[in-house]
Amino acid sequence: MEVEKFLKVKTVKTQRQFLVKWKGFSRNYATWEPEENLDCKELIKAFNDEEDEKYENERVIVLLERTCEPRQPRPSERIKRKSKVLDTPEVTGKRMGTTKAKTQKKK
Question: Which residues of 33-58 are buried (b: 16+ CB within 10 A; e: fewer)?
Fold first, then answer.
């Protein structure tokens, strides 16, 4: 069987394994193969280069997000935050869900 491309990589007990998409087969038949069983150094290098580039792009995005102003919460998020804070027993000093019923005296 011939390797079409690598989908993912993982490390198991210090051994790298690649999720291999085989030529002529669907993704359902992809299998995890140890690097030592694969004889396609060019594809492994290309995959590693792609992964490095993805990692660099993610790193740049994170750095940009840190330098930008923080995102303002959406109105629905603000409401949720307020209700969580205001409904806590520590803030109100009252037990939640318990109310005393008023009793009316008959005349």
Answer: beeeebeeeebbeebeeeeeeeeeee
CA atoms 33, 39, 42, 45: torsion sign: positive
CA 60 – CA 105 distance, rounded (Å):
72
Q: Which two tokens stand for residue 25?
A: 């087969």
Domain enclosing residue 47, as ranges: 3-67
Residue with token string 């993704």? 27
Residue 93 CB neighbour total at 10 angstroms: 6
pLDDT in tens, the chain (107 residues): 888 999 988 988 899 999 999 999 999 999 999 989 998 889 999 988 888 887 777 776 666 666 666 666 666 665 555 545 554 555 555 555 555 555 566 55
Q: What is the H or E stretch that residue 25 is in?
A: none
CATH of the domain at 29: 2.40.50.40
